[in-house]
């Protein structure tokens, strides 16, 4: 758990696996010991791929079976041109867990990934052992919108090259000063974007799915252990959204990181891993 948050390298060709889900191929990374303590599924954010979770996957793969798939139409997964909802991505995740015999699993999702995790727990509760919801929201009319800085991260110029887009987006999504202090994080984000550039059309499909997300009225039906992790200075999904999420899920715990933006696994890597591993250790004997 002492390794750097940016020690992971962009995946080389052939170091991932594919599985058929709903008639399509989903790519995924798996790191696991011979006798894992539990299964842990990592779900990526808007515009991201499994590579964004690589450092965390490697860190917990010593004890747990850590799985990070690419959502449909992203990364090394098969292209998918039709519109979809986040509930569809949750069904993909459910089919994935069944296909690789990894259910039930703890589900860790950041931003859009956390929204998908909520749908997964609601639609397929038998597959979910616990939730770690990072920098995310239940959606709905009571949502607190992104700040001007957060909106800028979403709406960068359409003609911007993928690597520069990744650098600019990470700079705007993290707290002030993070990018200057951690140029290696920007380098890794750019390298991941070069490996997995996302088309404007794919980004729009994900963004429209997020805009339709609202599970506010259903949060009380989530009964698995839940940990909500959020940055105090998140400009993309401000903190009140996490507070609503934690208040709505019975028994959920909320951990707020000071001086932290939208990417706490990068901005607070040691604390994030401590909190994640503590949650897994506390609840892996359940279910």
UniProtKB/TrEMBL annotation:
Q: Where is the AB hydrolase-1 domain?
A: 46-269
Q: Which Pfam families match?
A: Abhydrolase_1
Q: Which SUPFAM superfamilies match?
A: alpha/beta-Hydrolases
Which InterPro entries does this entry report, sorted A to Z?
A: AB_hydrolase, AB_hydrolase_1, AB_hydrolase_fold, Epox_hydrolase-like
Alphabetical list of PANTHER family matching this protein: AB HYDROLASE-1 DOMAIN-CONTAINING PROTEIN, HYDROLASE, ALPHA/BETA FOLD FAMILY PROTEIN
List the protein's name: Sigma factor SigB regulation protein RsbQ
Native organism is Deinococcus carri
The organism's lineage is: Bacteria, Thermotogati, Deinococcota, Deinococci, Deinococcales
Recorded name of the encoding gene = rsbQ
């Amino acid at each position: 758990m002492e390794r750097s948050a940016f020690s992971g390298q962009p995946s080389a060709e052939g170091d991932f696996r594919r599985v058929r889900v709903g008639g399509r191929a989903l790519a995924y990374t798996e790191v696991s010991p011979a006798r894992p303590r539990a299964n842990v599924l990592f779900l990526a954010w808007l515009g991201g791929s499994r590579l964004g979770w690589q450092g965390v996957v490697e860190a917990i793969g010593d004890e747990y079976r850590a799985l990070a798939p690419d959502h449909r139409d992203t990364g090394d997964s098969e292209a998918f041109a039709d519109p979809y909802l986040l509930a569809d991505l949750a069904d993909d995740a459910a089919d994935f867990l069944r296909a690789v015999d990894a259910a039930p699993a703890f589900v860790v999702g950041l931003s859009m990934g956390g929204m998908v995790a909520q749908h997964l727990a609601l639609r397929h509760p038998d597959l979910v052992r616990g939730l770690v919801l990072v920098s995310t929201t239940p959606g709905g009319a009571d949502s607190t919108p992104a700040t001007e800085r957060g909106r800028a991260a979403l709406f960068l110029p359409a003609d911007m090259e993928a690597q520069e887009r990744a650098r600019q987006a990470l700079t705007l999504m993290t707290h002030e000063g993070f990018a200057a202090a951690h140029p290696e994080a920007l380098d890794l984000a750019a390298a991941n974007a070069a490996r997995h550039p996302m088309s404007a059309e794919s980004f729009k499909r994900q963004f429209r799915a997020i805009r339709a997300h609202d599970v506010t009225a259903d949060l009380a039906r989530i009964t698995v252990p839940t940990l909500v992790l959020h940055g105090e200075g998140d400009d993309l999904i401000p903190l009140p959204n996490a507070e609503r999420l934690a208040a709505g899920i019975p028994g959920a715990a909320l951990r707020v990181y000071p001086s932290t933006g939208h990417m706490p696994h990068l901005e607070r890597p040691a604390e994030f891993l401590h909190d994640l591993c503590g949650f897994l250790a506390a609840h892996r004997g359940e279910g």
